[in-house]
Amino acid sequence: MLTLGVDLAAADTRTAMATVEWLPGRAVVRDLVLDVSDARIVGASEHVDKVGLDCPLGWPEPFVALVQAHRLGQIAVADGDGAQWRRGLAYRLTDEVVRQETGIIPLSVSADRIAHAAFRCAGLLAMLAAAGHDVDRTGGGRVVEVYPAAALYRWGLAHRGYKGRGQQVQHAQLVTALGEAAPWLDLGAFEGLCRRSHDAFDSVIAAVNARAAAIGMAAQPSDEQRPTACVEGWIALPTGPLRELIDGANE
To answer: What InterPro entries does the record point to (predicted)?
Structure first.
């Protein structure tokens, strides 16, 4: 099995992509690149079993309805808690599930700067669909939405404090901790890049999370949640420990 992890930024710069091959008893990072274009992501997707995309795949349905109503001058604000009303505009169903399950609050795709990456992601999903890939925003097709911070939390690893300027020590410690928690994951010649770039590191985590989704070890929406998830997207939270991603593998 091959999985692809993409840490998607608003532009090619700061976008990282990792390819991981899953073999009996081990997994090997076969490729890890920075400054990746949409065309390169689509091309790489042709050769893998699952793509873990670190970016929201959609917007909250109430937010989309608000924009449409605002355009027509037909907004009706419900009486009561205005903050709660605004929260429903800012966060998707899957974001609320992640918050409930992990205590981590994802960035709002309608109210935070991650929306710039989501604009790009919308075009990327259209390109993947045009290339013949099954783009199911719940993760049932080639692409699955992942959230490295939540995955790291689920795997018992540090999920905060390793990004940004001045965080090299924490970042390096996290790469070391990953190696201790998953000794079967071979970063090979790309270990140095993982230690230097948190974008590169997140793309590897995205590829590992894609493996969890591919083998049924990531949360899926319930029947009740699925209609909303089909539109808004669904974050595939890992449901088991790292070691179970490799144990019993038959590939």
So the answer is: DUF429
